[in-house]
């Protein structure tokens, strides 16, 4: 919106979980969208994720650094074309570190084994890029396949969505629904690192027209804690 009756501001949704509206300016959003388009091209491009039970996720995904599949990581697209996963760019890791610092208020969240910084401030080395069309959604799940507790960084591009942030015990209530718009940042670590979360719906047609994007892109950055091979 051009004007807000109640301007959006940084919000701690739960201990360790922070929403920062409008964190990415329009220029940086365009840069990320163009990068996502390049990453989505084959080989190791955008794919439909199939679950062990035989279902499929309604969002489509491409990975950088390490390839995620239910429920592990590999260096090749083991559930797709078998190609080597695309590299994780250094600038994206720097963006993740800056996101954590901005969300949590400085360097304390970045170092050591403190509540938010994660084990030994491990570097970000995974990006999961999910593309949502108007009918896509994401069920409640936890990001628990990593061997590192560094905060998860989530960047939204394009259409707005309902982001449901829950508890660490189950997919059921209590949870909080947050509207994520293009350019918004959401970071969760510390006591919220293993909270269940999902996207029950996307608000189609809400992407800023200057981005030239139909649908929603979510760029999620994680630190794997895995050995570099």
TrEMBL record:
Details of cofactor binding: Binds 1 Fe(2+) ion per subunit.
GO cellular component, one term: cytoplasm
Domain Fe2OG dioxygenase: 123-225
InterPro entries assigned to the protein according to its UniProt record, in alphabetical order: Alkb (IPR004574), AlkB-like (IPR027450), AlkB-like_sf (IPR037151), Oxoglu/Fe-dep_dioxygenase_dom (IPR005123)
Cofactor: Fe(2+)
Molecular function (Gene Ontology), one example: ferrous iron binding
Binding site for Fe cation: 141, 143, 197
Keyword check for Iron: yes
PROSITE patterns (alphabetical): FE2OG_OXY
Gene3D superfamilies: Alpha-ketoglutarate-dependent dioxygenase AlkB-like
Keyword flag Repressor: no
GO biological process terms on file: oxidative RNA demethylation
Keywords: Dioxygenase, Iron, Metal-binding, Oxidoreductase
PANTHER family tied to this protein: ALKYLATED DNA REPAIR PROTEIN ALKB-RELATED, NUCLEIC ACID DIOXYGENASE ALKBH1
Entry protein name: Alpha-ketoglutarate-dependent dioxygenase AlkB
Species of provenance: Streptomyces scabichelini
């Amino acid at each position: 919106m051009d004007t807000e009756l109640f301007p959006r501001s940084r919000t701690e949704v739960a201990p360790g979980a922070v929403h920062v509206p409008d964190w990415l300016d329009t220029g940086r959003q365009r840069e990320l969208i163009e990068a996502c388009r390049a990453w989505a091209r084959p080989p190791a491009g955008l794919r439909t994720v199939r679950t062990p039970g035989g279902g499929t996720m309604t969002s489509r995904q491409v990975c950088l650094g390490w390839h995620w599949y239910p429920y592990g990581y590999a260096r090749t697209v083991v559930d797709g074309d078998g190609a080597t996963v695309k590299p994780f760019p250094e600038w994206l890791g720097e963006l993740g570190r800056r996101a954590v610092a901005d969300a949590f208020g400085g360097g304390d969240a970045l170092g050591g084994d403190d509540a938010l910084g994660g084990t030994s401030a491990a570097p970000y080395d995974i990006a999961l890029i999910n593309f949502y069309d108007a009918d896509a959604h994401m069920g409640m799940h936890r990001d628990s396949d990593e061997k590192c507790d560094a905060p998860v960084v989530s960047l939204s591009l394009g259409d707005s969505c309902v982001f449901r942030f829950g508890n660490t015990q189950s997919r059921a209530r209590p949870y909080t629904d947050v509207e994520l718009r293009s350019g918004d940042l959401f970071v969760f670590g510390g006591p919220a690192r293993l909270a269940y979360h999902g996207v029950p719906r996307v608000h189609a047609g809400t992407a800023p027209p200057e981005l030239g994007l139909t649908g929603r892109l979510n760029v999620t950055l994680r630190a794997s804690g895995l050995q570099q091979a």
